[in-house]
Amino acid sequence: MHIGEVAARTELSLRSLRHWEEVGLLTPSGRTEGGFRLYTEADVDKIMVIRRMKPLGFSLDHMKAAMVDIETLASDEADPDAQDTARERLRITQQDAVERRQKLVAQLAMADEFLDLISGRLI
């Protein structure tokens, strides 16, 4: 797939996808002879993982590390010790994500209270 199709499927901008490549977060699986980026379904799956981490406020470095860990666990050739380390780091990331989500839920509750307050004043 070309970058435009991937952007449409993932609801991301071309700029985001290019930036993620520039910072080493995601590399397209290939390029055409003309130099255009080519993505696979596996690339789209990776993009969706990154996209889901983004609203939780993870840094680029944290997202990179998580992607490496996910790939390590998916690899049949990875050393068992490396897989154990990756699994433990992902457990920590999972707990961090749970805590970040809880903060977002609290923020949404405050936003709802504000909307209710404003709605009550407009009647």
Report what the structure shows.
This protein is mainly alpha-helical and 123 residues long. It has two domains: 1-56, Multidrug-efflux Transporter Regulator, Chain: A, Domain 2; 59-123, no CATH class. It is 71% helix and 3% strand. The protein contains five helices and two strands; from the N terminus they run ααββααα. A two-stranded antiparallel ribbon has the order 1-2. A hairpin with a 5-residue loop joins strand 1 and strand 2 (37-38). Helix 4 (60-74) crosses helix 5 (80-121). The radius of gyration is 19 Å and the shape is flat.
Question: What's the overall average pLDDT, rounded?
Answer: 95
Principal-axis shape: flat
Strand proportion:
under 5%
First and last CA, distance = 52 Å
Largest sheet: 2 strands, antiparallel
Helix count, DSSP H or I runs of 4 or more residues: 5
What order do the SSEs take from the amino end to the carboxyl end, as H and E?
HHEEHHH
Note poorly predicted spans. none
Structural class: mainly alpha
Query: How would you write the strand order of the largest sheet?
Result: 1-2
**What is the total number of structural domains?**
2
Radius of gyration: 19 Å
Provide the helix percentage. Answer: over 70%
Total count of strands: 2
